[in-house]
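Researcher: Next entry in the queue.
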Amino acid sequence: MPAKGKHRRPKSLRFTRTIAAAGTGGAALALPLMGATGAHAATQATVAQHVEKAATAAPAEKAATATAKTYAVKSGDYLSKIADEQNVTGGWKKIYADNRSAIGGDPSLIHPGLKLSLGHRAAATHTATHTATAPAKSQATPAADTAATTIASTGDSAGYTLPVDSSTIGTGYKVAGSMWSSGYHTGVDFVVPTGTTIKSVAAGTVVSAGWGGAYGNQVVIQHADGKYSQYAHMSSLSVSAGQTVTEGQQIGLSGATGNVTGPHLHFEIRTTPDYGSDVDPVAYLRSHGVAVG
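Model: Structure for this entry, 293 residues:
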């Protein structure tokens, strides 16, 4: 019996140590395994975040790119008209800035068939974010201030010219008649066929360009001396409001739009940009050395 007891006791002790060792070893092995699992999980979370960001950014960039479109210039188009009809943010200046390489140095010289990109630079949202301060700077300058600065810089040195390559006048200035709301003719009519090039008589800044009611398609330009020239009944316009022009630069083509009986150019000189402030246009041109009539 004592012998059997001695035999069982050591066996029991060895069994306990084995369990303890196994428990200690198991604990030691468990720690590295848990660390590896945690690191793997963290890596998966980081990758998931990058994938999620890329997936979120891609649709936004794709949607922004979708806003860009191509427009084919049609007969009678001019940049401000295109900007209005196509709802271009930034107006004709934005179109010109985005398509300067295609249009060239003169924004008024666009021709039918020319392909213009509308909204191209708004394609990438991150680009718009980085350049957001640039448009704000250009927009901060009022159009009136820009026009005044331009007019002051051009001065009177460039000279004056006839608005068309013809000095033949049909109806003269202040000819009385019931067909005119003022009771008399407020300008002079140059007899030219539809499609004749109309030129700015002097350097200046375009105040308005578009539909003028009875005047049809018209352009009004402010000059360095504070006077305004008006060109009416045009078939098409080549300039936009706010644009700087030089002496003799084409601003459109003659026509018979508005209240007319036939094609001609109605030309006025005004002391303000508005109707009713007219002065003798022939005397004005002659005072600047232009032979008329």
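Model: The radius of gyration is 39 Å.
Researcher: Noted, moving on.
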